[in-house]
Inverse folding.
């Protein structure tokens, strides 16, 4: 263990990496006796791999039963420092990474990224980018803006809507979005559906976005705005969240943005990413790469640290595997849906040519059950069981 802990001192670390190492070492020193009890056979000569190795030790191989209560926060701080360091180091490689190497990284980490699920979200929203927010059903609007709700039907929304930056903590934003979706449509209208997006287009968006908050005590913040922009134009805008701004800004070599620094977001985040070699020259060789090229501004989201828990913590999987709701006599109620949402979801399902005509004739009954909280697939399946 001692050899592992001191090995970065023999690596050719840059100034940022050296500071990160010193911060990590400071926390490791506080639990050095516990770390020394761990047998280490792997001694990476690369700082990124070193961070992965020490993080695995701090998460999975240290004996937590031997830790004192006051040491637990230290271990958590060490884990956070290491995961942020991995995010920084991986994001930093994007500054020189060519397109084939970027694609290879994504393919190698497919399982950890829950890539299939994330792509389902992108494909679902692809034909909704030109639909005004005010014309969307509530569930589609939440999917577009990045907030999970238990009313999402897993047979329709077979993905976590909070991939690519969650906005669940932006309560004021979501209240305004629910009350005045047209105000945010006016902002997004300044961003063209295709072609070049100019700085003037973005500035007009920002002005209109701020105006949506005029009659509210809530202050406009960057994260929800970048989520809307990224879903509107995933080939132009990279979404950010406050928790991930630190490693992203460090990787780009810029001072960390505040959550209201809209001007620097364009100058320091958008333009910096647009100047990277993989962004300017995506040589799509197959259908999958063409899909990635169409959402290339989202790709940095996949270079933050991930582990097997990342995919397992998908809100979609949690909702899918939620225990079957108890009967009404237990006092627990299913999450109800609005009639408009139920009708849209049912009509989408009934448009499938494989649905028999006599089942389509039961539309109103199906809608009523879906309104109560039953899933669309479950309801249609039940109807087919009863009526054949």
């Amino acid at each position: 263990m001692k050899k592992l802990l001191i090995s970065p001192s023999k690596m050719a670390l840059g100034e940022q990496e050296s500071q990160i190492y010193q911060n990590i070492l400071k926390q490791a020193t506080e639990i050095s006796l516990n770390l020394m009890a761990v047998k280490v056979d792997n001694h990476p000569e690369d700082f990124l791999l070193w961070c992965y190795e020490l993080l695995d030790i701090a998460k999975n191989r240290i004996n937590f039963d031997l830790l004192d209560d006051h040491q637990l926060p230290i271990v958590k701080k060490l884990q956070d420092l290491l995961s942020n360091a991995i995010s920084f180091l991986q994001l930093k490689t994007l500054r020189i990474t060519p397109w084939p190497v970027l694609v290879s990284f994504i393919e190698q980490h497919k399982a950890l990224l829950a890539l299939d699920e994330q792509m389902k979200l992108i494909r679902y929203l692809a034909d909704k980018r030109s639909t005004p927010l005010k014309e969307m059903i509530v569930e589609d609007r939440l999917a577009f803006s990045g907030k999970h709700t238990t009313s999402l039907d897993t047979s329709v929304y077979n993905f976590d809507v909070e991939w690519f930056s969650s906005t669940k903590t932006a309560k004021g934003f979501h209240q305004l979005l629910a009350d005045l979706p047209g105000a945010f449509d006016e902002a997004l209208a300044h961003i063209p559906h295709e072609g070049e997006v100019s700085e003037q287009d973005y500035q007009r968006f920002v002005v209109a976005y701020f105006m949506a908050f005029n009659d509210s005590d809530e202050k406009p913040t960057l994260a929800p705005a970048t989520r809307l922009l990224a879903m509107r134009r995933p080939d132009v805008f990279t979404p950010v969240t406050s928790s991930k701004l630190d490693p992203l800004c460090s990787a780009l070599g810029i001072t960390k943005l505040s959550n209201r620094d809209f001007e620097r977001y364009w100058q320091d985040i958008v333009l910096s990413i647009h100047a990277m070699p993989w962004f300017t020259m995506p040589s799509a060789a197959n259908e999958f790469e063409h899909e990635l090229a169409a959402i290339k501004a989202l790709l940095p989201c996949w270079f933050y640290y991930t582990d097997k828990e990342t995919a397992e913590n998908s809100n979609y999987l949690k909702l899918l595997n939620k225990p079957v709701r108890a009967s009404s006599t237990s006092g627990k109620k299913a999450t109800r849906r609005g009639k408009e949402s139920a009708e849209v979801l049912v009509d989408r399902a009934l448009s499938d040519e494989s649905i028999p005509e006599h089942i389509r004739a039961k539309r109103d009954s199906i809608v009523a059950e879906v309104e109560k909280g039953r899933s669309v697939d479950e309801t249609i399946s039940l109807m087919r069981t009863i009526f054949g």
